[in-house]
Design a protein that fits this description.
Layout: H1 5-24, H2 56-76, E1 85-97, E2 102-113, E3 116-127, E4 133-140, H3 187-192, E5 196-201, H4 235-250, E6 256-264, H5 266-277, E7 283-287, H6 305-311, H7 334-339, E8 346-351, H8 359-375, E9 397-402, H9 410-423
Parallel strand pairs: 4-5, 4-6, 6-7, 7-8, 8-9
Antiparallel strand pairs: 1-2, 2-3, 3-5
Helix pairs in contact: 4-5
Length: about 425
């Protein structure tokens, strides 16, 4: 051993660590409009080859598919194969739930692929007296039992992210967490207005952690595979897929007329992608969905592609990582995700204090998507509309920015229910 060998190796490791940290470090989030870079918004009505789209038929035949395929392969990731088997069973039912206000059903859904299986539960409340009810379908973050204090709702056994405020410990839900998220689900208001509510714990589809060894993905692996391929689905696409499997049951329930898919935050991203991939959803709601949801990526305001791919590397396809801190290279932006939902009703919502999700970027995205809705003679957010706090714009493509922070509130549900009564029933 030479005299300086013991010092050279630690210095080399230190240098390597510093270089690696510098390469992977993310710029601080920008909350200053004067620092938003100049960017070009891709025109949804001009194909990648430069051809102008002038009517809905051209959109459907030429433009919609190429945009969809880009999002599918380069952003959210492609579902690798068809299921082998799907089943459902009503495991509990009460026709006098919630003080006689609702029928409650709990449905066990089973899916199988490659001799592997996954099960999840749907909690469904339908209003008594409305035998053909529209239903809001959405994921919850910690278990079906958290959205209501109904003592008969089954407690999930799936892995759960710890949250002391919500009494989730040791990655396991217990009776202590029953009803802790009632504030985000205006169930009584929905039922009183003749709407049903269906919800699923998203962790039963794919646990929200950077581990592809469990959850939905693992059912589809080929021999020796341990994670999705480069252009295959991340967790957001898996959650969207789960919403469609819930829809498989709901569309066959004779007491349901149609289904509006809803999601908040990361689950808002999943709801928007579910709406784009599954035409059976009669309407779509993205609440505070932000980066990778409704917000424009090229603005680089609040959360960016680089930050979301670093913090949550499992959410998107591996191919999306090449756009980290390189948003200008994207040939699409999120307004074109919204456009894929046209002409069905779509509601984009923001909160004024939720700068991380870029409320202005969500508003502009809805505005830029409007020209596609107009091909179908549907109204959206016009170029003269102004983003104002607590002043909803309720067209087929609707928008509001409420006061407050990143959350789902009664104000949000009041708007969604009133909008749905006009556009989605």
């Amino acid at each position: 051993m030479t005299p300086n060998q013991t010092t050279v190796k630690p210095l080399f490791l230190l240098l390597f660590t510093l270089i690696t940290s510098a390469l992977t470090a993310q710029p601080e989030a920008n909350y200053d409009e004067t620092k938003v870079p100049k960017f070009s918004v891709p025109d949804p009505l001009v194909t990648f080859g430069g051809e102008a789209i002038t009517d809905s038929q051209q959109w459907e035949e030429k433009r919609k598919l190429e945009i969809y395929q880009f999002f599918e392969k380069q952003i959210y990731g492609k579902v690798p194969a068809l299921l082998d088997e799907y089943s459902f069973k009503v495991i509990e039912q009460d026709n006098n739930a919630l003080g006689g206000k609702a029928q409650r059903k709990q449905i066990a859904v089973g899916i199988k692929k490659n001799n592997r299986s996954l099960n999840f539960n749907i909690l469904l409340y339908l209003p008594i007296g409305n035998e053909n009810a529209p239903v809001f379908l959405g994921y919850n973050f910690h278990g079906n039992h958290t959205v209501t204090d109904d003592p008969n709702v089954i407690i999930t056994e799936a892995w759960n992210e710890n949250n002391e405020d919500l009494k989730i410990r040791n990655n396991k839900a217990t009776e202590a967490s029953r009803g802790v998220r009632m504030n985000r689900w205006a169930i009584d208001k929905m039922l009183d207005k003749g709407y049903g509510i269906a919800t699923v714990y998203y962790g039963e589809i794919d646990p929200d952690k950077n581990d592809f060894s469990d959850g939905l993905h693992s059912l589809f692996y080929e021999e020796g595979q341990t994670k999705p391929k480069t252009n295959e689905w991340g967790s957001i696409a898996a959650w969207a897929y789960g919403l469609s499997r819930a829809m498989d049951y709901l569309e066959n329930d004779t007491n349901i007329s149609n289904v509006i898919v809803f999601g908040h935050s990361r689950l808002g991203k999943a709801a928007l992608w579910a709406g784009a991939t599954d035409l059976r959803f009669a309407g779509v709601i993205g609440n505070d969905s932000g980066c990778g949801g409704a917000a424009l990526s090229k603005r680089k305001f609040g959360e960016t592609i680089g930050q979301i791919n670093t913090s949550f590397p499992h959410w998107f396809s591996e191919s999306f990582k090449k756009y980290s801190n390189k948003e200008e290279m994207l040939p699409v932006d999120q307004h074109e995700l919204l456009a894929l939902i046209a002409p069905r009703p779509l509601y984009v919502a923001s909160a004024v204090e939720d700068e991380w999700a870029d409320p202005k970027g969500e508003f502009l995205s809805a505005q830029y998507a409007t020209k596609v809705y107009e091909l179908y003679d549907k109204k959206g957010i016009s170029s003269t509309d102004v983003q104002e706090v607590n002043h909803p714009i309720k067209q087929t493509l609707a928008y509001h920015m409420r006061s407050g922070k990143h959350d789902v509130t009664d104000y949000d549900w009041d708007q969604y229910i009133a909008w749905a009564e006009t556009f989605a029933k």
